[in-house]
Design goal:
The chain is mainly beta. Helix content is about 0%, strand content about 45%. The protein contains no helices and 10 strands. The protein is globular.
């Protein structure tokens, strides 16, 4: 199972990534800004999604919005 970011680079558990666009989180008034760096991502069972922690929140995000 190969998980790829927006540029086609292969992602692994624990990789740092950056967001490629501003994202509003559902259910909150929080917006995660483009360019934010996220460390220690976790791969999920779905090839198109990753799990990470930012601002003390666990977030599941599609891989098309991140780059290595």
């Amino acid at each position: 199972m190969r998980v790829k970011d927006a540029n086609g680079n292969i992602l692994n558990d624990g990789d740092p990534v950056k967001l490629t666009r501003d994202l509003r989180l559902k259910g909150t008034s929080t917006t995660i800004k483009r360019g934010n760096s996220v460390k220690n991502i976790c791969l999920t069972e779905n090839v198109n999604k990753i799990d990470f922690r930012i601002n003390k929140m666990n977030i599941v995000l599609r891989t098309e919005f991140v780059k290595k």
